Amino acid sequence: MLSTEKIKDIFDGHKGVMRTCEMSEAHIYYHDIQQLVERGVIEKVRYGYYQWIDSENLSEAATITRLFPDAIMCMDTALFYYRYSDRTPRAWHLAVSKDSNKSRFKIEYPFIKPYYLEPSVLELGAEEGEIDSNPIRIYNKERTICDCLRYMGKMDKEIFNKAVRFYVEDSAKNISRLTEYAKILRVVQKVKTIIGVWL
Description:
Mean pLDDT: 92
Shape: elongated
Strand order of the largest sheet: 1-3-2
Structural class: alpha+beta
Largest sheet: 3 strands, antiparallel
Number of strands: 8
Distance between the termini: 64 Å
Helix content: 40-55%
Strand content: 15-25%
Radius of gyration: 20 Å
């Protein structure tokens, strides 16, 4: 078996999370994996995925992007990212295709809340961002606000109200884009009645 230090370097090169096939390519085999788990050096986070415990490069964002490369951060996660909410989300809110295998989102950690969307609107407003120096995919401000309007009945009222207020006060808001997205996502009336009164 490779030295623990060498294996740590390999994991660090994968931002602290590796798939079993990647480990095998790096000459870390099944027996080695079992020993590393027993020693508390790595832990299984999902079928076929392991993470280095206490990795310097490991952040929840890195784990999320490695486990769910097709997911787009949305709702409470996006609101916190844009500082439209001061409440740290309890879970990572992720937009994924409704055709995704739902069992892959049943993990103990990190906590996630998937939103299963129609593939036709999944990429609308998706942009690149960065959390803890890790590249992520996240909905832009306008898509995030439209989603808040779509799910307002399921949202915490205080988070919703602050999000709307902070968006309206944001000098970088794009009202024409918000209107365009509202038409596609069928929330035009809500934009007019809830956001329109502030403008």
